[in-house]
Each structure stands twice: as C-alpha cells, then as structure tokens.
Fold these 4 entries.
Entry 1:
Amino acid sequence: MASGRLDGVALAVVILTPLAAFEAVLGMPLAVQYRQRVRRSAERVYEVLDAPAPVREPESPRQAPASPFPLVVRGLVARHPGQDRDALAGVDLTFEQGRRIAVVGPSGSGKTTLAQALLRFLDPDTGSYTLAGVDAYALDGDDVRRLVGLCAQDAHLFNSSVRENLLLARKDATEDALRDALGRARLLEWADGLPEGLDTLVGEHGAWLSGGQRQRLALARALLADFPVLVLDEPAEHLDLPTADALTADLLDATEGRTTLLITHRLAGLEAVDEVVVLDEGRVVQRGPYAELVSVPGPLRAMARREDEAGLLVAVR
C-alpha cells in the first residue's frame, strides 16, 4: 500500500464489498412492488380467521348411536354466514333403512346446503335433526360423518394409485373388497385394463382420468366406506348429458337397497328412488314418487319438460 499498490486481498475486499452491499438491498424494490399484493392476501386470510365458525361442536359430545335410523329432519332453517336470505326454510325429511330420496331443484334452491346440514358442515338456525332419536347437534361432527357419508361432485383424488385412493375409505380393505367396490361403480373392467392395474397412478386430482372415471372412482371409494347413509351431491355435474345420465343410472344401481340421498338437477332415472323432493328457494314445493309428480301439473313436470327440450336440442346438434 505504501507504494500506491493494493495487495490481492485488499483489492478483492474493495471490489467485492460494494457488490455484496448491493446484493443485500437488491430485493427491496421487488418487495415494495409486491407489498400491496401481499397486503390484500393478508386481509383475506384475516377475514377467514375472523369469520364465525359455521359449526358449533358440543363441549361434552354424546355417544353416537350404532345405527342412524330413523334419520329425521324437522323444520330445518339454515342461512350461510353473510347472507340475508335463508338457504333452507322449513325442510322435513325422514330416512328409514334402505330408503332412497332424490332432491331436485334449480341452482341456488338449497340442495347442497341440505347436504352440508346433514353432514354437520353447517348448523341450522332452527329445526331439529336426529339420528336414531339422538340430537345430531349433541354429537361430535366426526361421529355424525361416520354415519352419514358424502360423495361430492368435486371429490378429491390424490396423485397416487387407484388402490391408494380407494384405501383412504378403508385402510384394511382386501383386494376382493376393492374389486367389488370398483365393480359396483362400473369401473372394474377399466381398472383391469390399466397398465399397472390398481397400482396405476391417476394424476393430481385425477388429471389422467376422464370426468366420468373420476366420479366413478369417487363413488367406488364411498361404497367401500360403507356409510349407513350416503349423500350423493351432484355426482354428474360438469359431465356431458349422455355421460351424466349413464353415471346416474349406475349410481342408482350401485346404491339399490342402501339408504341414499341423491342431490341432482337431472331427472333421468329418478323412477328408481322412493321419493322425490323438489326444492325452490329453500322450500319444499313438491314431494312424492316420481311417476306421480311428473303426471300432474307442477314444478317437477315443468323441469321434465325443459329437460326433454334440452335433450332434443343436443340431439339436433
């Protein structure tokens, strides 16, 4: 340094120190740029955290009954948080073992809300819901869902094999039980034709399956779980009409003799259920056997007429 020269170490320090200092603050402009976006995201997270719980679990849950029958709903009134209108307004239902009921109606009529109430995902404002005479709201929510199971329109499939997705329903299921569930869901022949059989991967959320195959696999999983009461919530939603009607027919065949609540906006195949309940704006506007309701003027007959007209339009195309 005395000769006006820097040795190698000092030169490296002089050159690298500004570079290191600049690197430390390099991300600050980007942080400022994303500040507003992160702030909005945080506000949404806090909204969720501050939202009231849709379900109140009992402090001392009662013992769940061995069987849920009869399952009885009386005068059920429910409203979603933040809404100014009741999603359900005085709904009555009774399930005996083996009884199948279809709930139909336009979008927003309260069909899915009814499923949420039965599964204890939503507490009603008024009304009663009992399982074998026991107040369902005095039971632990998980106990209720062991008695009343769901096969939803958006049932999740994991990025794993057919077998592992099925075993989520019953870990100790045998090979015969898996194949029986697939057979009842009309999926066994397809599964046997896969490259790795039941060990074939299905992709994230069933990405490597068709819409109908995803729903049938979800149905097979629900059948394997063997819920005493099975709720099928719009299982044929987002499918083309021929596929939707074929799936509904197979669902009804697979659930014959099982206590089932089928929530649907399609009427095809509903002659097979014991009762059809028509909802409109949360209220029951018509109920009874399908053949009886479709033969008289009323909401169901109007729905059937519109469905027939839509079918003709599809056929013409």
Entry 2:
Amino acid sequence: MAFILSISGSTVRSESKRLPELFQWHTQGMEVGDFASTRDLDYIVSKCKKCSVKLGLHTPLLRTDDRHGLLWDSSTTAWDELRRNLEFARDHEIAYVLVHFPYIWDKGGRNLGVEGVRSAVHRLKRLEEWSGVPIVCEPKLGPNRDPSVFMLLWSIGKQELRQWDISFALDVGDIYLASQKLRGRWEPLFSHLAPWCSVIHLHNVWAGGRQYYWTPVSPRGNVPVDKMMAYLDSENKDIYAVLQHNPHRSGGREEVGEGINWLLQNAGPWKDREGYDTWDGKYTRVK
C-alpha cells in the first residue's frame, strides 16, 4: 500500500487543447472533471486506459452540469446527474468519483446544519453501493473562506464518522486556510478526518486580499504538505496524492518538476515508482 502520484486537470484548467499535457508527468493517477465536451471526457478515459493511468473523475464532469445542486436541496435533477456519472464511471472502470461534500450552505447562504448533511450521507452511500464505484467527498471552504464545513465535521465524533463509512478527499490548502481563519492549528482539523482519507490534494497557497490561488508543491511552500501526508495511513491502503495548481500561478514546467522531485524524495512510499524517485522530464510512463 502506498501513495499514488496523480495530477489534476486543474493544472491545465481542463482546456481541450491542453489535456495532452497532463500525461507529460508520467504519474500513476489522474483526477479530471469540468470538461468542455463529452469528446474531451472520452479522450481522457481512452488515453488513461492506454497508458495504464488510474483515473478519478471530479464532478461536475461537464461545465454545464450542476456543481452544488445535490447538496443545496433534494432536487432530483442533481442527484440524477450524479447517478448518471456513476453509471459512466462503472462502465469505464473509473477509480473513483469525487464530489464537493458536505456543502452546507443553501442558495441564499443559509447554513443547512448537520441534519441536512446526515441525510445526504446516507443517500450518497446508497448510490455508492448501487454503482460499485467509490464516492470520495471533498469538504471545501465556503464564501469568503468560511470554515464552517470543517467546524461541522470537527463536531461530529469519530464513532459517527466511522458509521458513515465514507471516503474523504482532503485539500491541504483549504485546511490550511481554514485553520488560519479560525486562528488555530491545522493538525486537529486534518487528523480528525485523516483515517477516512483516500485522496489528498497537494499544493501551496498564494493569498492576496479576498483572492487566493493554488501554487505548485515546493520545498519553500507555505503549506506543510509533507507533514500533512505523514498523518495518513498509506501503509495500509492506497491514497491518491493529487498535484494541483492554478496554471497562471505556476512558474512553469521547471517549478512543477522541482516540486515533484521534492515530494517524491520527502514523502511516500510511492506506488509503482521503484527506481523512479525523480522526474526526468521525459514523456514516458513508469509502469
């Protein structure tokens, strides 16, 4: 069991003409969503199969799809959309489907509270069991960096989280910013959810005023990426370690490559990377 080095489609904004760039890093996994067209989706699915890359799909799959509807209310449209996504994932042997959850604000900005989250958890589990495809839930900051979702999850005991039996994707940047907003330490927020983490999103944070962006993993970064990864149980299960950054906040290929090398040498263990502890810039796949 080990970390599966993965790359996110966000590094190229899922732009049609840039999707081939995702394969230049010869990672073992990939997480992509927000496609401009079904043609782009089909390309990624086909290319990942050809290159033996494990693919996770980030909802919404298409830019025209509903991003938060299934969490705002009981609208059947959004849940039907997720059901279709899971059917597609099952038919194409997708590794997992990621949803932003819990999202605890309705369209008017009202906090829906823990009961709304509990009912949605049971619904997600039924869909997961029906499809046979793992659903991975990523808690996110709210408007103006609102950390309420992390406070809500912190208030739920580990016994109940164990009963939920859902997998989490932990975004190191969101948890880092949430801890700053709460004027506390990131460790309690992260460690509380770590036992159920199957995906971790890795990057640093650039913040200015109300804006913030993801920047590449770096030994000089402000987010303690390696320390967060050390909390995860990679010895007993595989965990997707997904590299992210906003492309306009990246120093380019050299900076990203430096971050990958630092990560490979300072965290781990890494799945299927024996003898490949550095990224050499070649367009080759490892295994």
Entry 3:
Amino acid sequence: MVLDSNIWVDLLVFRDPHVEPIRTALEAGTIAPVIRADCREELRRVLAYPQFARFDIDIDAALATVDRLASLEAAPPQADYDAIRLPRCKDTDDQKFVELAHFAGAACLVSKDKAVLKLRTRLRRSSGVEVMTPPAFGAWLATLGAASAADPL
C-alpha cells in the first residue's frame, strides 16, 4: 500500500480521526506501506512548510517514524516507465505516488488529493491499484477484521 504525503502528515502531525484506523493498523503491523526516496523527500519538504511551524515538528523524528513503518522501494529503471502507459495525474507532484503504487504492486493508494482521487477508475484498470480516501480505507480495513500481521497489506 502507498500513503501519499498528506496522509503521512495527518498521521505524524494531526490527530485526524479519519486516519486513526490507519495509525492502529500501522502500529500493529497489519499494513505495510511502501515509500520511495523522492516521496520521502517530498514529505520532508512538506513538514518544513511555514504553516506547520506552530506545531514544532521534529522532522528527523517524523521521518524516522516513516522509516520504521514503511519499506523503502527503489525507483524502477527509466525503461520500465517508458514501457507502460500509466494514468497521468494533473498534479505532477503526485505522479510519483501513482508510479510507486504501480511499480510496487500495491493493493491501494490512500490519498485525500482530488487530482489523485480522480484517477481511481483509470489506475484500477491499468494497474489493479485501488485509490481510496482515508475513511474508505478505514472501512475496508474494518471489513478485513482479523487481518494478520504475518500477512500485511
């Protein structure tokens, strides 16, 4: 599974109740997100935005949490990108999450970003990746019920 930067920010900075099922599943090891170096670097930049200064975020500690909870996925060779036709995200900054979900074989991409959410049908058709909002992902987790930490998503 892939979490975009906004979801990581909600997990690391805010106490948004919509991401609490994700937090619980992460801590239990029920879900195992993947991240790529460029996605992690974007998260570092986002956490340093001036509007977050009032939260006094320890960016290194936040990224250490991401490193503990997510597996680092290598970017595929350019030839792999050239060989496929992935849906293009209107927000080019979010395209990396679409690519990560596809190349990592992720079951889902969790996002609140409108440009990413608009790709739902096309990404499912091209890659088999479900694009979900945090509440939809939380509901999906609830239907799984007894998902085992030995078989994380």
Entry 4:
Amino acid sequence: MEIEDVRKGTKFLINAIPYRIEDTEFVKPGKGQALYKLKLRNLFDNSVLNRTYRSGDKVDDIRTETYKGQYLYKEGDQFVIMDNSSFEQHYVNEEALGDKKFFMKEGDPVTVTMYGERPLEIEIPTFVELKVVKSSLTSRSSTITAQYKPAELETGASVDVPAFINEGDMIKVDTRTGTYVERVNVKK
C-alpha cells in the first residue's frame, strides 16, 4: 500500500509489528518531495511512535479479522472474551485495553480485531450504564449550584458526577471520554 492511501485509523506493519495511524500531517516543503508525518500507535503494547514518510513510500498491509464477542470475566490481569459465533475464548492483556477496562462489565458486548491468533483492538459500546457504589455526601446548600463530586463505579472507574447522584444510582457514562452523561431510571 502506498503512503498516499493511508488515513487516520489505517493499520499497517512496521518490522512485523502492527500499528494504527492516530494522526496524519501532510507537509509540502518549498523544494523537494511531499512528506507525511504520522503519529502511530503500536497495537501490541499501546506505545506511540512518530514517523515521517516521503511521497511514494510503501508500507506493508496488514490482514486482520474482526468478530463480535462478549466479555466473560477477568482472570488475573487477563480479560476473557468469547467469540459469539465460534464460542472460542481469547485472553486479552489488561494493558492492551487501556482505559477501556474501567468500563467493561461481565456480559458486555465487544468487537474484537484479531491479527493471527492475537487480539489487537477491543471496541466497547460508546455508552455504558454502570452503578455508583461509592460517592461522597453533599450538603443541601451545595445542590443549588451545578457542582460535581467524585464517584466510584461498580467496575472500579472514578467519574465526576452531579451532586444529586447517590450510591446505588445507575448512570450512563461516555466510554470515549470517561465522563458522566445522565442518570438512568431503573424500571422496577
């Protein structure tokens, strides 16, 4: 694949290691060839690499497979995910998930991108509903203005929530930013 064809999100190999493009910048100097400055994320260890390519350079294409799965449980520092079609179980290292691990509950649906036998990326739902297990108390006067307080969720994540949220409440959280969206009404 030629460097001109890559976009943000494109995956390719560098020295047999898969990378995903996080950011691209096209630079056309006054003299010489055009340059492509890429910010790349190593899909094995989540490290970031900055590379510059010249117009016309080629990169190694990567063959991945994607499947729908379900997060089953955590075993040590491994998250066990089941393929919904073949029922195979794959182990994903905690580090590979990054901050996503704070928003995953057992039974949640996930989308897994595999490279050979190794899971590369896990996509979780954009919004999840989680229970508040711990939050500080607020005085009546502090609810007059829009104030936020830290709350611990059932998955161990810490999120700033409005003062009216109490322990036991269900809230919706944006998993991309880790922020509170709204309180969820639980039907009884």
